[in-house]
Amino acid sequence: MAHRTISEEQLLDRALELFRVHGFEGVSLSRLSEAIGLEKASLYHRYPGGKDQIVLAAVARVAQWFGEHVFALLKTDDSPRRRVALVAEQLRVFYRDGTQPCVTDVLSISGGSEELAATLKIALQAWLKAFGEIARESGLSSSVSRLRAEEAIVRIEGSLVLARVLGDTKPFQRVLKLLPGLLTVA
Amino acid sequence: MAHRTISEEQLLDRALELFRVHGFEGVSLSRLSEAIGLEKASLYHRYPGGKDQIVLAAVARVAQWFGEHVFALLKTDDSPRRRVALVAEQLRVFYRDGTQPCVTDVLSISGGSEELAATLKIALQAWLKAFGEIARESGLSSSVSRLRAEEAIVRIEGSLVLARVLGDTKPFQRVLKLLPGLLTVA
DNA sequence: GTCTATATTAAGATAGAC
DNA sequence: GTCTATCTTAATATAGAC
Protein backbone atom coordinates (compact mmCIF):
# COMPACT_ATOMS: atom_id res chain seq x y z
CA MET A 1 0.00 0.00 0.00
CA ALA A 2 1.22 3.48 -0.86
CA HIS A 3 2.28 5.76 1.96
CA ARG A 4 -0.95 7.58 2.70
CA THR A 5 -2.07 10.14 5.23
CA ILE A 6 -5.48 11.04 6.55
CA SER A 7 -6.86 13.52 9.03
CA GLU A 8 -8.18 12.46 12.42
CA GLU A 9 -11.65 13.67 11.43
CA GLN A 10 -11.81 11.75 8.17
CA LEU A 11 -10.48 8.64 9.85
CA LEU A 12 -13.15 8.70 12.54
CA ASP A 13 -15.93 9.55 10.10
CA ARG A 14 -15.08 6.51 8.02
CA ALA A 15 -14.83 4.34 11.11
CA LEU A 16 -18.20 5.58 12.31
CA GLU A 17 -19.81 4.77 8.97
CA LEU A 18 -18.77 1.16 9.47
CA PHE A 19 -19.58 0.91 13.17
CA ARG A 20 -23.08 2.40 12.95
CA VAL A 21 -24.07 -0.07 10.24
CA HIS A 22 -22.23 -3.26 11.21
CA GLY A 23 -21.91 -2.85 14.97
CA PHE A 24 -18.82 -3.30 17.09
CA GLU A 25 -18.47 -7.03 16.53
CA GLY A 26 -19.20 -6.68 12.83
CA VAL A 27 -16.23 -4.41 12.17
CA SER A 28 -12.73 -5.90 12.05
CA LEU A 29 -9.45 -4.03 11.95
CA SER A 30 -8.97 -5.32 8.43
CA ARG A 31 -12.23 -3.72 7.33
CA LEU A 32 -11.35 -0.53 9.15
CA SER A 33 -7.93 -0.53 7.53
CA GLU A 34 -9.46 -0.97 4.10
CA ALA A 35 -12.14 1.69 4.58
CA ILE A 36 -9.77 4.21 6.12
CA GLY A 37 -6.88 3.56 3.78
CA LEU A 38 -4.23 2.92 6.41
CA GLU A 39 -2.59 -0.36 7.33
CA LYS A 40 -3.59 -2.04 10.59
CA ALA A 41 -0.21 -1.24 12.14
CA SER A 42 -0.79 2.45 11.39
CA LEU A 43 -4.15 2.31 13.14
CA TYR A 44 -2.49 0.74 16.17
CA HIS A 45 0.11 3.49 16.12
CA ARG A 46 -2.61 6.15 16.35
CA TYR A 47 -4.86 4.11 18.62
CA PRO A 48 -2.80 1.70 20.72
CA GLY A 49 -6.01 0.46 22.30
CA GLY A 50 -7.16 -0.90 18.93
CA LYS A 51 -10.81 -1.22 18.00
CA ASP A 52 -12.02 -0.32 21.49
CA GLN A 53 -10.22 2.99 21.36
CA ILE A 54 -11.23 3.77 17.79
CA VAL A 55 -14.90 3.23 18.45
CA LEU A 56 -14.71 5.39 21.57
CA ALA A 57 -13.12 8.20 19.59
CA ALA A 58 -15.75 7.86 16.88
CA VAL A 59 -18.54 8.03 19.45
CA ALA A 60 -16.92 11.06 21.07
CA ARG A 61 -17.00 12.74 17.68
CA VAL A 62 -20.72 12.01 17.38
CA ALA A 63 -21.27 13.48 20.84
CA GLN A 64 -19.42 16.59 19.73
CA TRP A 65 -21.55 16.81 16.58
CA PHE A 66 -24.71 16.55 18.67
CA GLY A 67 -23.42 19.24 21.00
CA GLU A 68 -22.83 21.63 18.14
CA HIS A 69 -25.77 20.80 15.88
CA VAL A 70 -28.50 19.76 18.29
CA PHE A 71 -27.94 20.91 21.86
CA ALA A 72 -26.55 24.30 20.82
CA LEU A 73 -29.63 24.92 18.64
CA LEU A 74 -31.87 24.34 21.64
CA LYS A 75 -30.31 27.32 23.40
CA THR A 76 -30.77 30.05 20.79
CA ASP A 77 -33.32 32.86 21.27
CA ASP A 78 -35.80 31.52 18.74
CA SER A 79 -39.16 30.34 20.00
CA PRO A 80 -39.02 26.84 21.52
CA ARG A 81 -41.17 25.47 18.73
CA ARG A 82 -38.93 26.94 16.06
CA ARG A 83 -35.83 25.60 17.80
CA VAL A 84 -37.26 22.09 17.87
CA ALA A 85 -38.14 22.35 14.19
CA LEU A 86 -34.51 23.25 13.45
CA VAL A 87 -33.32 20.35 15.57
CA ALA A 88 -35.56 17.99 13.60
CA GLU A 89 -33.84 19.17 10.44
CA GLN A 90 -30.44 18.37 11.92
CA LEU A 91 -31.61 14.93 12.97
CA ARG A 92 -32.83 14.33 9.46
CA VAL A 93 -29.31 15.11 8.28
CA PHE A 94 -27.61 12.92 10.88
CA TYR A 95 -29.80 9.93 10.12
CA ARG A 96 -29.82 10.64 6.37
CA ASP A 97 -33.62 10.74 6.20
CA GLY A 98 -33.81 7.57 8.26
CA THR A 99 -31.54 5.46 6.10
CA GLN A 100 -28.68 5.43 8.62
CA PRO A 101 -29.02 3.52 11.92
CA CYS A 102 -28.75 5.06 15.34
CA VAL A 103 -25.20 4.81 16.70
CA THR A 104 -26.48 4.33 20.24
CA ASP A 105 -28.75 1.48 19.23
CA VAL A 106 -26.25 -0.44 17.15
CA LEU A 107 -23.22 0.06 19.40
CA SER A 108 -25.09 -0.73 22.60
CA ILE A 109 -25.44 -4.30 21.48
CA SER A 110 -23.08 -6.36 23.56
CA GLY A 111 -19.48 -6.80 22.49
CA GLY A 112 -17.87 -3.45 23.17
CA SER A 113 -16.09 -2.35 26.33
CA GLU A 114 -17.73 -1.26 29.56
CA GLU A 115 -16.43 2.21 28.79
CA LEU A 116 -18.27 2.24 25.47
CA ALA A 117 -21.52 1.25 27.15
CA ALA A 118 -21.04 3.96 29.77
CA THR A 119 -20.26 6.56 27.09
CA LEU A 120 -23.39 5.71 25.13
CA LYS A 121 -25.47 5.90 28.28
CA ILE A 122 -24.13 9.36 29.12
CA ALA A 123 -24.74 10.53 25.56
CA LEU A 124 -28.33 9.33 25.63
CA GLN A 125 -28.91 10.92 29.03
CA ALA A 126 -27.59 14.23 27.69
CA TRP A 127 -30.02 13.98 24.80
CA LEU A 128 -32.93 13.29 27.15
CA LYS A 129 -31.90 16.23 29.31
CA ALA A 130 -31.70 18.62 26.35
CA PHE A 131 -35.13 17.57 25.06
CA GLY A 132 -36.58 17.81 28.55
CA GLU A 133 -35.25 21.32 29.01
CA ILE A 134 -36.71 22.67 25.80
CA ALA A 135 -40.09 21.15 26.69
CA ARG A 136 -39.88 22.70 30.13
CA GLU A 137 -38.98 26.07 28.65
CA SER A 138 -41.93 25.92 26.27
CA GLY A 139 -44.22 25.82 29.28
CA LEU A 140 -44.74 22.16 30.05
CA SER A 141 -44.45 20.92 33.62
CA SER A 142 -41.25 19.31 34.75
CA SER A 143 -42.69 15.79 34.89
CA VAL A 144 -44.53 16.09 31.57
CA SER A 145 -41.37 17.48 29.96
CA ARG A 146 -39.43 14.45 31.05
CA LEU A 147 -42.07 12.11 29.65
CA ARG A 148 -42.21 13.97 26.36
CA ALA A 149 -38.44 13.85 26.01
CA GLU A 150 -38.47 10.11 26.60
CA GLU A 151 -41.33 9.62 24.19
CA ALA A 152 -39.57 11.63 21.49
CA ILE A 153 -36.37 9.64 21.74
CA VAL A 154 -38.24 6.35 22.04
CA ARG A 155 -40.02 7.15 18.80
CA ILE A 156 -36.87 8.27 17.00
CA GLU A 157 -35.05 5.09 18.01
CA GLY A 158 -38.00 2.85 17.25
CA SER A 159 -38.68 4.37 13.86
CA LEU A 160 -35.03 3.89 12.91
CA VAL A 161 -35.30 0.21 13.82
CA LEU A 162 -38.36 -0.09 11.59
CA ALA A 163 -36.53 1.71 8.82
CA ARG A 164 -33.65 -0.75 9.00
CA VAL A 165 -35.83 -3.86 9.10
CA LEU A 166 -38.54 -2.82 6.66
CA GLY A 167 -36.59 -0.45 4.46
CA ASP A 168 -39.37 2.08 5.08
CA THR A 169 -38.35 5.49 6.39
CA LYS A 170 -41.85 6.98 6.53
CA PRO A 171 -42.33 6.36 10.28
CA PHE A 172 -39.07 8.19 10.92
CA GLN A 173 -40.06 11.14 8.77
CA ARG A 174 -43.39 11.26 10.58
CA VAL A 175 -41.73 11.40 13.99
CA LEU A 176 -39.56 14.31 12.89
CA LYS A 177 -42.65 16.16 11.75
CA LEU A 178 -44.38 15.54 15.05
CA LEU A 179 -41.33 16.54 17.10
CA PRO A 180 -42.22 20.23 17.62
CA GLY A 181 -45.71 19.29 18.80
CA LEU A 182 -44.33 16.61 21.06
CA LEU A 183 -41.70 18.75 22.77
CA THR A 184 -43.52 22.09 23.02
CA VAL A 185 -46.98 23.28 24.01
CA ALA A 186 -49.28 24.05 21.08
CA MET B 1 -17.20 -33.61 26.93
CA ALA B 2 -19.69 -36.24 28.03
CA HIS B 3 -22.06 -37.66 25.46
CA ARG B 4 -25.05 -35.37 25.89
CA THR B 5 -28.39 -34.98 24.18
CA ILE B 6 -30.76 -32.04 23.96
CA SER B 7 -34.12 -31.39 22.36
CA GLU B 8 -34.51 -29.19 19.31
CA GLU B 9 -36.56 -26.75 21.35
CA GLN B 10 -34.06 -26.38 24.17
CA LEU B 11 -31.22 -26.03 21.70
CA LEU B 12 -32.91 -23.20 19.85
CA ASP B 13 -34.04 -21.46 23.04
CA ARG B 14 -30.46 -21.35 24.28
CA ALA B 15 -29.21 -20.17 20.91
CA LEU B 16 -31.83 -17.43 20.87
CA GLU B 17 -30.80 -16.23 24.31
CA LEU B 18 -27.32 -15.61 22.96
CA PHE B 19 -28.35 -14.14 19.61
CA ARG B 20 -30.86 -11.65 20.98
CA VAL B 21 -28.28 -10.22 23.38
CA HIS B 22 -25.03 -10.42 21.43
CA GLY B 23 -26.26 -10.22 17.85
CA PHE B 24 -25.31 -12.45 14.95
CA GLU B 25 -21.68 -11.36 14.76
CA GLY B 26 -21.30 -11.48 18.52
CA VAL B 27 -22.12 -15.18 18.77
CA SER B 28 -19.53 -17.75 17.73
CA LEU B 29 -20.01 -21.46 17.32
CA SER B 30 -17.77 -21.99 20.33
CA ARG B 31 -20.10 -19.89 22.48
CA LEU B 32 -23.12 -21.65 21.05
CA SER B 33 -21.48 -24.99 21.72
CA GLU B 34 -20.76 -24.03 25.32
CA ALA B 35 -24.22 -22.61 25.98
CA ILE B 36 -26.03 -25.49 24.33
CA GLY B 37 -23.83 -28.24 25.71
CA LEU B 38 -23.00 -29.91 22.41
CA GLU B 39 -19.68 -29.90 20.57
CA LYS B 40 -19.36 -27.77 17.45
CA ALA B 41 -19.25 -30.85 15.23
CA SER B 42 -22.60 -31.95 16.70
CA LEU B 43 -24.12 -28.59 15.88
CA TYR B 44 -22.88 -28.91 12.31
CA HIS B 45 -24.40 -32.37 12.14
CA ARG B 46 -27.83 -30.97 13.06
CA TYR B 47 -27.40 -27.73 11.15
CA PRO B 48 -25.04 -28.24 8.20
CA GLY B 49 -25.46 -24.56 7.33
CA GLY B 50 -23.79 -23.58 10.59
CA LYS B 51 -24.57 -20.33 12.37
CA ASP B 52 -26.72 -19.00 9.51
CA GLN B 53 -29.00 -22.00 9.73
CA ILE B 54 -29.15 -22.02 13.53
CA VAL B 55 -30.14 -18.38 13.76
CA LEU B 56 -32.83 -18.88 11.11
CA ALA B 57 -34.27 -21.80 13.05
CA ALA B 58 -34.20 -19.77 16.27
CA VAL B 59 -36.00 -16.88 14.59
CA ALA B 60 -38.57 -19.28 13.14
CA ARG B 61 -39.24 -20.46 16.67
CA VAL B 62 -39.82 -16.88 17.80
CA ALA B 63 -42.22 -16.39 14.92
CA GLN B 64 -44.08 -19.51 16.02
CA TRP B 65 -44.24 -18.23 19.61
CA PHE B 66 -45.65 -14.92 18.42
CA GLY B 67 -48.20 -16.73 16.32
CA GLU B 68 -49.40 -18.75 19.30
CA HIS B 69 -49.11 -16.17 22.06
CA VAL B 70 -49.77 -12.88 20.32
CA PHE B 71 -51.54 -13.23 16.98
CA ALA B 72 -53.83 -16.01 18.20
CA LEU B 73 -54.89 -13.88 21.17
CA LEU B 74 -55.95 -11.11 18.82
CA LYS B 75 -58.58 -13.42 17.26
CA THR B 76 -60.49 -14.55 20.33
CA ASP B 77 -64.03 -13.33 21.04
CA ASP B 78 -63.04 -10.99 23.87
CA SER B 79 -63.49 -7.28 23.35
CA PRO B 80 -60.69 -5.72 21.26
CA ARG B 81 -59.51 -3.72 24.25
CA ARG B 82 -59.32 -6.79 26.43
CA ARG B 83 -57.50 -8.73 23.74
CA VAL B 84 -54.85 -6.01 23.44
CA ALA B 85 -54.42 -5.98 27.21
CA LEU B 86 -53.76 -9.72 27.12
CA VAL B 87 -51.29 -9.25 24.28
CA ALA B 88 -49.46 -6.63 26.34
CA GLU B 89 -49.07 -9.20 29.10
CA GLN B 90 -47.55 -11.67 26.65
CA LEU B 91 -45.13 -9.04 25.36
CA ARG B 92 -44.10 -8.32 28.92
CA VAL B 93 -43.26 -12.00 29.24
CA PHE B 94 -41.38 -12.20 25.95
CA TYR B 95 -39.26 -9.15 26.73
CA ARG B 96 -38.94 -10.07 30.42
CA ASP B 97 -40.31 -6.72 31.59
CA GLY B 98 -38.07 -4.91 29.14
CA THR B 99 -34.81 -6.49 30.23
CA GLN B 100 -34.43 -8.59 27.08
CA PRO B 101 -33.70 -6.95 23.71
CA CYS B 102 -35.88 -7.22 20.64
CA VAL B 103 -34.75 -10.06 18.39
CA THR B 104 -35.69 -8.12 15.28
CA ASP B 105 -33.67 -5.08 16.34
CA VAL B 106 -30.52 -6.93 17.33
CA LEU B 107 -30.49 -9.45 14.49
CA SER B 108 -31.29 -6.90 11.80
CA ILE B 109 -27.89 -5.35 12.34
CA SER B 110 -25.74 -6.27 9.39
CA GLY B 111 -23.81 -9.51 9.41
CA GLY B 112 -26.43 -12.19 8.90
CA SER B 113 -27.59 -13.68 5.62
CA GLU B 114 -30.00 -12.10 3.17
CA GLU B 115 -32.46 -14.80 4.17
CA LEU B 116 -32.26 -13.74 7.81
CA ALA B 117 -32.97 -10.13 6.89
CA ALA B 118 -35.92 -11.21 4.74
CA THR B 119 -37.28 -13.42 7.53
CA LEU B 120 -37.11 -10.60 10.07
CA LYS B 121 -38.85 -8.26 7.65
CA ILE B 122 -41.69 -10.72 7.10
CA ALA B 123 -42.03 -11.26 10.85
CA LEU B 124 -42.26 -7.53 11.52
CA GLN B 125 -44.77 -7.07 8.70
CA ALA B 126 -46.93 -9.82 10.21
CA TRP B 127 -46.82 -8.04 13.55
CA LEU B 128 -47.84 -4.74 11.95
CA LYS B 129 -50.67 -6.48 10.14
CA ALA B 130 -51.97 -8.13 13.32
CA PHE B 131 -51.92 -4.86 15.27
CA GLY B 132 -53.55 -3.04 12.37
CA GLU B 133 -56.36 -5.57 12.18
CA ILE B 134 -57.25 -5.36 15.86
CA ALA B 135 -57.29 -1.56 15.63
CA ARG B 136 -59.52 -1.77 12.58
CA GLU B 137 -61.83 -4.20 14.34
CA SER B 138 -62.12 -1.90 17.33
CA GLY B 139 -63.64 0.72 15.06
CA LEU B 140 -60.73 2.80 13.84
CA SER B 141 -60.45 3.66 10.17
CA SER B 142 -58.16 1.62 7.98
CA SER B 143 -55.57 4.37 7.62
CA VAL B 144 -55.60 5.31 11.30
CA SER B 145 -55.30 1.64 12.23
CA ARG B 146 -52.18 1.31 10.16
CA LEU B 147 -50.65 4.39 11.77
CA ARG B 148 -51.52 3.19 15.27
CA ALA B 149 -49.98 -0.21 14.60
CA GLU B 150 -46.78 1.43 13.38
CA GLU B 151 -46.73 3.78 16.33
CA ALA B 152 -47.20 0.93 18.79
CA ILE B 153 -44.35 -1.10 17.37
CA VAL B 154 -42.13 1.95 17.00
CA ARG B 155 -42.62 2.67 20.68
CA ILE B 156 -42.06 -0.92 21.77
CA GLU B 157 -38.82 -1.10 19.77
CA GLY B 158 -37.64 2.31 20.87
CA SER B 159 -38.37 1.72 24.53
CA LEU B 160 -36.39 -1.53 24.40
CA VAL B 161 -33.43 0.36 22.97
CA LEU B 162 -33.66 2.85 25.85
CA ALA B 163 -33.91 -0.01 28.30
CA ARG B 164 -30.72 -1.56 26.95
CA VAL B 165 -28.73 1.66 26.89
CA LEU B 166 -29.98 3.25 30.10
CA GLY B 167 -30.86 0.16 32.08
CA ASP B 168 -34.27 1.75 32.65
CA THR B 169 -37.32 -0.32 31.73
CA LYS B 170 -39.93 2.24 32.77
CA PRO B 171 -40.54 3.58 29.24
CA PHE B 172 -41.18 0.01 28.08
CA GLN B 173 -43.62 -0.66 30.91
CA ARG B 174 -45.38 2.60 30.08
CA VAL B 175 -45.80 1.64 26.43
CA LEU B 176 -47.37 -1.66 27.41
CA LYS B 177 -49.84 0.15 29.63
CA LEU B 178 -50.73 2.54 26.82
CA LEU B 179 -51.10 -0.25 24.27
CA PRO B 180 -54.88 -0.85 24.64
CA GLY B 181 -55.57 2.88 24.27
CA LEU B 182 -53.26 3.11 21.31
CA LEU B 183 -54.69 0.17 19.37
CA THR B 184 -58.39 0.50 20.17
CA VAL B 185 -60.97 3.28 20.35
CA ALA B 186 -61.67 4.52 23.88
C1' DG C 1 -26.00 -38.42 16.93
C1' DT C 2 -22.14 -37.05 19.48
C1' DC C 3 -17.50 -37.05 20.16
C1' DT C 4 -12.05 -35.95 19.41
C1' DA C 5 -8.97 -34.11 16.39
C1' DT C 6 -7.56 -31.19 12.85
C1' DA C 7 -7.60 -28.20 8.74
C1' DT C 8 -8.18 -23.49 7.12
C1' DT C 9 -9.00 -18.87 7.35
C1' DA C 10 -9.42 -14.47 9.64
C1' DA C 11 -9.06 -11.92 13.80
C1' DG C 12 -6.40 -8.97 17.11
C1' DA C 13 -1.86 -7.41 18.00
C1' DT C 14 3.35 -6.37 17.76
C1' DA C 15 8.33 -5.75 15.84
C1' DG C 16 11.12 -3.36 13.24
C1' DA C 17 12.41 -1.15 8.53
C1' DC C 18 11.84 3.17 6.17
C1' DG D 1 3.75 8.17 10.91
C1' DT D 2 3.19 4.51 7.75
C1' DC D 3 4.72 0.49 5.96
C1' DT D 4 5.84 -4.96 5.49
C1' DA D 5 6.11 -9.02 7.94
C1' DT D 6 4.92 -11.99 11.47
C1' DC D 7 2.97 -13.83 15.82
C1' DT D 8 -0.92 -15.70 18.45
C1' DT D 9 -5.40 -16.65 19.12
C1' DA D 10 -10.01 -17.63 17.79
C1' DA D 11 -13.26 -18.35 14.08
C1' DT D 12 -15.61 -21.45 10.64
C1' DA D 13 -15.71 -25.92 9.01
C1' DT D 14 -14.70 -30.99 8.12
C1' DA D 15 -12.97 -36.02 8.83
C1' DG D 16 -13.51 -39.96 10.98
C1' DA D 17 -13.91 -42.82 15.48
C1' DC D 18 -17.40 -44.44 18.64
Brief synopsis:
Chain A has helices at 8-22, 29-36, 40-46, 51-71, 80-94, 103-107, 114-137, 142-166, 170-183. By secondary structure, chain A is mainly α. Chain A binds chain B through residues 21-23, 25-26, 101-102, 104-106, 108-111, 117, 120-121, 124-125, 150-151, 153-159, 161-162, 164-167, 171, 175, and chain B through 21-23, 25-26, 101-102, 104-106, 108-111, 117, 120-121, 124-125, 150-151, 153-159, 161-162, 164-167, 171, 175.
Mean pLDDT of chain A: 97
**Alpha carbon gap, first and last residue of chain A:** 59 Å
Overall body shape of chain A: elongated
Structural class of chain A: mainly alpha
Total beta strands of chain A = 0
Q: Outline the biggest β-sheet of chain A.
A: none
Rg on CA atoms of chain A, Å: 18 Å
Order of helices and strands of chain A: HHHHHHHHH
User: Which chain pair shows the most residues in contact?
Assistant: A-B, 36 and 36 residues
Oligomer: homodimer
Question: What ranges of chain A have pLDDT less than 50 throughout 5 or more consecutive residues?
Answer: none
Percent strand of chain A: under 5%
Query: What percent of residues of chain A adopt helix (DSSP H or I)?
Result: over 70%
- The number of helices of chain A is 9
Helices and strands, with pairings:
Two copies of one chain form a homodimer.
Chain A: H1 8-22, H2 29-36, H3 40-46, H4 51-71, H5 80-94, H6 103-107, H7 114-137, H8 142-166, H9 170-183
Helix pairs in contact in A: 1-2, 1-4, 4-7, 5-9, 7-8, 8-9
Chain A binds a DNA duplex (18 and 18 nucleotides) through helix 3.
